[in-house]
């Protein structure tokens, strides 16, 4: 479960670039990228491919997985916040793309 598909690696790299451009601290960057990578690994382990659109079902299922695996609530919240940051990044990217058209 350690490796990601090429598409998922691209998503992680784009997210990391966004965080750097946004001026996030190194530790924040490491944490957020690690959380997104772990989420994508979990998703791919369920035979799902993340196409860039995060649905409520994904978040709920991942949160349930974390709870069932005895993660602390603060850790779960941090991981979900990282996903929220990723959603923001994707929305900003879509907005920039549509403005160029």
Q: Any idea what the CATH architecture is?
A: Orthogonal Bundle
Element pattern in H and E: HHHH
Percent range of helical residues: over 70%
CATH superfamily label? Tyrosine recombinase, N-terminal domain
The computed structural class is: mainly alpha
Largest sheet: none
Mean pLDDT: 86
Radius of gyration: 14 Å
- What count of helical segments does DSSP give? 4
Uncertain regions spanning at least 5 consecutive residues: none
Shape by Cα distribution: globular
Q: Give the CATH topology.
A: DNA polymerase, domain 1
CATH C-level class is: Mainly Alpha
- Number of spatially distinct domains: 1
DSSP summary, beta strand count: 0
Strand percent estimate = under 5%
Q: How would you name the oligomeric state of the polypeptide chains in this document?
A: single chain
User: First CA to last CA: what distance?
Assistant: 39 Å
Overview of the structural elements:
By secondary structure, the protein is mainly alpha-helical. It has a single domain (6-100), classed as DNA polymerase, domain 1 (Orthogonal Bundle), CATH 1.10.150. 76% of the residues lie in helices and 0% in strands. The protein is globular, with a radius of gyration of 14 Å. Keywords: DNA-binding. Belongs to the 'phage' integrase family. One of its GO terms (molecular function) is DNA binding. Residues 6-91 form the Core-binding (CB) domain.
